[in-house]
Specification:
The complex is a heterodimer of chains A (814) and B (303). With 814 residues, chain A is an alpha/beta fold. Chain A contains 31 helices and 17 strands. Chain A folds into 3 domains: 217 residues, no CATH class; 293 residues, Anaerobic Ribonucleotide-triphosphate Reductase Large Chain; 173 residues, no CATH class. In chain A, the strands form 6 sheets. In chain A, strands 6-7-8-15-14 form a 5-stranded mixed sheet. In chain A, strands 11-12-13 form a 3-stranded parallel sheet, with helices on one face. In chain A, helix 15 links the parallel strand 6 and strand 7. The relative contact order of chain A is 0.11. In chain B, 30% of the residues lie in helices and 21% in strands. Chain B has 10 helices and 12 strands. The longest helix of chain B is centred in the last third of the chain and has 15 residues. Chain B is globular, with a radius of gyration of 20 Å. In chain B, 46% of the residues are buried. The C terminus of chain B is likely disordered. Classes of the chains: A alpha/beta (814), B alpha/beta (303). Chains A and B meet through strand 1, helix 25, helix 28 and helix 29 of A and strand 1, helix 4 and strand 12 of B. Strand 1 of chain A pairs antiparallel with strand 12 of chain B, so a sheet runs across the interface.
């Protein structure tokens, strides 16, 4: 007797969207900024107004210190940017008055504005301004300053390299968040006072004529003044919204909406200035700063927030203690907040539009986890956030639940139900791994416990300035093996991309192959890190962040900008792509060349150079007859352990400009698709023009034959504690999670996963049949979401190629 | 050490008993149900599965037994009554166009593997299920595996036809926690219906026994109102021992495996049983068997 599935089928159409009429309507009116097939939806355009204001301020402040320029520019932009409050909104704020507009940041990367003009995203009437912006920022961006420092060969390697993604350093900071606890405790009023006190001290010292410290004191003076100006800028912005709400209330004919606008104005009069008194105010505070830091002051995504923790105080007060609102009201507020974040987006490069298909930005909310004392941190807010996410069905922000064995059962159950609903999140982060990994970097246990997820996978303490200078680099690790086996030359471009290497048929042992791989990996990591360090140097000099500085503890104490503050373990990682192809390729070489002696190294070099042409029998043997990673086979498990250990060692041998080391991390987002054009044929049977295995440590497409348990046990052989996180993607049919048994089953899988000390798990529960059907009848599945290594996308809007690739992957229990 | 040909191991099954199951499918069954959807589990001997869609026409299989790749069909047509003649073809096939239907495992290999996932089986109150094929046909192997699993603290379940002399079933009583028994018919002598029913009643008289009944609903075989009603009434006689009854609708997916075995499937042209008939039957059973839970399920084909 084989499997029986219950009749309970999960149908994407059955979902009731929105807990209230308001959120239903807001969801209907939503304007998506996501790009599909490399394009933004009709009507989406790039608005240069923010950039224009920013430039005007810079022109007027040319004599100022960089930090003052930044603060004044922010104040000028926030004081003059057109604003609007849209129909039905209760949480307000937009990067532009027109919700179809995308902001652009030529001060960071002029190339994007050029592309926006070329691709027709800049309106005709704005072209003049756009060209003036290009002219003004030419040669002033970080990217151009970095390039000045490179030798011609390195410049060539960097620009044409397929060993790492070379654009990462052009985009600047990618996440920027306040220390929310610190902000909510104080409010901007209190923060300004604290900074003023420090500023007064600095003035006093200058007055006393401390000549040896004078340069430092002057720097501090600029810093503190800029921090105050930045906070004033924020208050100016919220004040404009308050005024707008009052004006609109006066004109509003619908008395109910007029009352709402009046209540909103009252809330806006206090928002951010003091400790939030309601969940509504806390959510509005959250959104304003998320917006300013990530979409107005800079182009970033805004992760690292323990959202259920920062809202818990007001939730408890409003819903549980004072009962001024119900759980449903709270859920409505959270749903509107999610919708506000969903509508945000950035203008991305052509390449990136293809690679990061289906998403506007990548903010991630952390929930669950433990409190600093180690006890469970889940609460009713955790559950309500998950319920809101399930109800409103948006693909951003994504959520990661920080799992531990003593979690509140209802929170874990809600999380599994959210996964079951096919949203593609929450991803699951192992709290115990997180604490161990951070402690290994020298972070105290209590601080490590109060951490969350940044980007897709990496973890970082909440009380640190790290997100204001997040450094990540994508290393196409599989390239190192390609170079090692091809005399240091790239199979795609034919160019020398690393140190020269002997011909691979001269390798006499497996260990020599591994050593050659390590040598190439060292070179590509060192080169990439050098470039990133250069940009880090210029970011510190030219792009300080006085607003973020005002919202963290350390800059107040030290007078050092958050972007420059280094007195804490860094949060730098190398995102290693194609690791599993390396493992499988080495397994094939070890077995077939050095043990069975069935094929020679020469055979494999020929295969790689000819893209396996005329060698299909050999290729099939390689694919089918050698055990691959993910089947809990000790042979490949051992190689996997070795490959990750070596990579980690190489990474930790490279340093940032302050001497902190880089760590490895593995998740490939949908960059793995881009690897198709960047990588050649591999000994594991991969063809040139095909992408590498996706997900950090997920088995390659169709090579795991023993089910999820074996995958977990294989992954468990890799030491996760020496990494910044290794993402494991798994697909489970929705029927596996049906009913209470299904939920219990998932909980037991999580226990096995936790027992294996793994770091991150991402579960997709989409039935391939549903995906196929949705390919044919997209109109039937408008809300079908899937997750691709760390972010979620709307399935029906993905390109056919990407859809096919996802369908090819092993679906557990199909 | 006792070994057995296993056609498949499912480590995360939630359908072969309570909780999460480590389910193994043994090769070999003494019955030959015409609708059987796992034909590769019928013969006790090794067999070869043939999947032309994976073939790259390399000719290795043909050459392995001295054939002519220019002329012969590829992958080579397998006569599974003489499967051993074709082993070298499978061994030389670089793809999965030819593969063995079963793989030999020992009791200790399986126990060791199962131990690795103990967390899951414990937490879900699941355990070991031997399915097939017919587990009791492999008397020593199944007995030893059950006995060792049980003494290691795992819940044990068997998926059996129960078409054996009572003495054999009696031997297994101490090592099996849950008996999952197929009731297919009442009067089919080829499938030993009378013997099965006698055994069911004997089993049900054992103190604290747990039995799940599975009724495959097969068009043209047992889908007669009177017969089904009678079957339900017979099951009712087993009384409190019956913890659950499930009605399993026919589906034609087994055809792929018949093709792979180079055999014909008589039921290939039948459609999947429609839900209406299935639910009607379920309700009828539920009415007669009250308060026993009667569920329906769709049989899914594996791999």
């Amino acid at each position: 007797m084989e499997e029986i599935i219950t009749e309970e089928k999960i149908d994407a159409q059955q979902y009731e969207i929105g807990v209230t009429q308001r959120t239903k309507q807001l969801k209907k009116d939503l304007i998506t900024k996501a790009c599909y097939v490399g394009k933004y939806a009709d009507g989406i355009f790039v608005d240069v107004i923010r950039a224009k204001l920013y430039m005007e301020s810079y022109k007027a402040t040319e004599a100022d210190a960089p930090v003052m320029k930044r603060a004044k520019a922010l104040k000028y932009v926030l004081g003059n940017l057109p604003i609007s409050i849209l129909n039905n909104e209760i949480i307000v704020g937009n990067p532009h008055a027109d919700p179809h507009a995308l902001p652009i940041f030529p001060e960071i990367n002029t190339g994007l504005l050029t592309e926006a003009i070329d691709d027709g995203y800049v309106r005709k009437e704005d072209l003049d301004d756009a060209n003036k912006l290009l002219e003004y920022w030419d040669g002033k961006t970080i990217a151009s300053k970095v390039a000045e420092n490179m030798s011609d060969w390195i410049k060539d390697v960097v620009n044409t390299s397929s060993s790492f993604i070379s654009t990462t350093w052009k985009d600047g900071i990618q996440h920027c968040v306040p220390n929310w606890d610190y902000l909510f405790e104080n409010g901007t009023t209190e923060l300004k006072k604290k900074i003023q006190t420090k500023l007064d001290e600095v003035f006093n010292e200058i007055d006393r004529g401390n000549s040896t410290k004078l340069s430092e004191l002057i720097e501090k003076r600029y810093q503190y003044q800029a921090m105050i100006i930045s906070l004033e800028a924020v208050e100016l912005f919220t004040g404009r919204y308050e005024k707008l709400a009052i004006e609109m209330a006066e004109k509003e004919s619908d008395s109910k909406r007029a009352q709402e606008l009046c209540d909103m104005a009252t809330m806006l009069s206090k928002v951010l200035k003091e400790r939030p008194s309601s969940l509504y105010e806390a959510c509005q505070s959250f959104f304003f700063l998320h917006l300013i830091l990530n979409c107005i002051d800079s182009a970033a995504f805004g992760s690292l927030v323990r959202i259920d923790q920062i809202f818990w105080t007001t939730y408890k007060k409003n819903v549980i203690d004072e009962k001024t609102i119900t759980q449903k009201d709270a859920q409505e507020i959270i749903e509107t907040l999610i919708l506000k974040i969903q509508v945000l987006g950035g203008f991305f490069s052509r390449k990136r539009r293809l690679h990061f298909e289906g998403n506007g930005a990548l903010p991630i909310w952390s929930i669950g986890g433990v409190k600093p004392d180690g006890t469970d941190a889940c609460n009713e807010m955790t559950d309500t956030i998950l319920m809101a996410a399930r109800s409103i069905r948006c693909n951003q922000p994504t959520i990661s639940i920080m799992y531990h064995k003593n979690m509140r059962d209802s929170s874990l159950t809600e999380a599994i139900k959210t996964i079951r609903d096919g949203l593609g999140y929450p991803s699951i982060t192992n709290t115990d791994w997180m604490i161990r990994s951070l402690q290994r970097q020298g972070i105290a246990k209590e601080i490590a416990r109060n951490s969350g997820v940044v980007g897709c996978v990496s973890v970082c303490p909440v009380d640190s300035c790290n997100t204001t200078k997040r450094l990540a680099l994508t290393i196409i690790a599989v390239k190192a093996l390609e170079l090692a086996l091809n005399e240091g030359k790239c199979l795609v471009s034919g160019k020398l991309m690393g140190p020269e290497e002997i011909k691979a048929d001269k390798f006499t042992t497996y260990e020599e192959v591994v050593a050659a791989f390590e040598k190439q990996l060292k070179f590509s990591i060192r080169t990439a890190v050098n470039v990133r360090n250069l940009s880090r140097h210029y970011e510190k000099t030219y792009r300080p962040n006085p607003l973020a500085s005002a919202l963290h503890r350390s800059p107040l104490i030290t007078g050092i900008d958050a972007v420059s503050y280094e007195d804490e373990p860094n949060n730098y990682w190398l995102n290693m792509v194609g690791m599993i192809n390396i493992v499988n390729s080495l397994a094939v070489i070890k077995k077939l060349v050095f043990e069975d002696k069935k094929y020679s190294m020469e055979n494999f070099i020929t295969a790689m150079r000819t893209n396996w042409e005329g060698l299909e029998v050999m290729r099939q043997e390689v694919i089918n007859k050698v055990s691959k990673f993910g089947n809990d086979d000790p042979y490949t498990n051992e190689i996997a352990e070795e490959v990750f250990r070596i990579s980690s060692k190489v990474a930790e041998g490279t340093y940032d400009i302050n001497g902190g080391y880089w760590s490895i991390l593995a998740q490939s987002v949908s960059i793995y698709q881009a690897t198709a054009a960047m990588t050649g044929a591999m000994p594991d049977g991969k063809l040139s023009g095909k992408p590498v295995a996706d997900g950090g440590i997920s088995p390659d497409h169709g090579t795991d034959n023993n089910g999820i348990f074996s995958v977990l046990n294989s992954a468990g052989k890799i030491d996760h504690d020496i990494t910044k996180g290794l993402l494991l993607n798994q697909w489970i049919s929705p029927e596996m999670l049906a009913g209470e048994e299904g939920i219990e089953w998932m909980k037991s899988i999580l226990e096995l996963w936790h027992e294996n000390n793994l770091s991150q798990l991402q579960v997709n529960v989409v039935d391939p049949e549903v995906l196929r059907d949705a390919q044919k009848y997209p109109e039937k599945y408008p809300h079908l979401t899937i997750r691709i290594s760390g972010y979620t996308a709307n399935w029906v809007k993905l390109t056919p190629e990407l859809q096919e690739m996802i369908l090819e992957r092993t679906c557990q229990n199909k | 050490m006792e070994k057995c040909l296993i056609t498949r191991i499912v480590r995360d099954s939630i359908l072969d008993g309570p909780g999460c199951r480590y389910t193994i499918f043994v090769k070999g069954c003494h019955l030959r149900c015409e609708w059987c959807h796992n034909p590769e589990t019928q013969s006790l001997k090794q067999e070869i599965l043939r999947y032309p869609k994976f073939c790259i026409k390399c000719g290795n299989c043909v050459k392995a037994i001295g054939g002519n790749p220019e002329k012969d069909v590829m992958p080579i047509i397998i006569d599974n009554t003489k499967a051993e003649m074709y082993y070298s073809c499978v061994d030389n096939c670089p793809t999965n166009a030819l593969e063995y239907a079963g793989k030999e495992f020992s009791v200790s290999q399986l126990l060791d593997d199962m131990q690795k996932y103990r967390t899951v089986y414990n937490r879900t109150k699941g355990g070991l299920t031997i399915s097939g094929g017919e587990p009791l046909l492999h008397e020593n192997f199944s007995y030893n595996l059950f006995a060792k699993a049980k003494s290691a603290g795992f819940h044990t379940a068997v998926d059996t036809t129960a078409a054996f002399e009572w003495e054999l079933l009696e031997k297994f009583l101490p090592v099996i926690d849950l008996w999952m028994i197929d009731i297919k018919h009442l009067y089919d002598s080829k499938l030993k219906s009378v013997l099965v029913l006698e055994n069911l009643l004997k089993l049900s008289s054992i103190k604290d026994i747990n039995i799940w009944i599975r009724v495959p609903l097969i068009p043209g075989y047992n889908d007669l109102d009177n017969l089904l009603k009678e079957m339900a009434e017979v099951i009712k006689k087993a009384g409190k021992a019956i913890k659950q009854v499930s009605i399993l609708p026919f589906h034609p997916l087994g055809d792929a495996k018949y093709n792979a075995l180079c055999r014909n499937y008589q039921f290939a042209k039948h459609d999947e049983l429609n839900t209406e008939i299935l639910n009607k039957t379920r309700n009828k059973f539920a009415e007669i068997l009250k308060p026993v839970e009667v569920i329906t399920g769709i049989r899914m084909i594996h791999g």
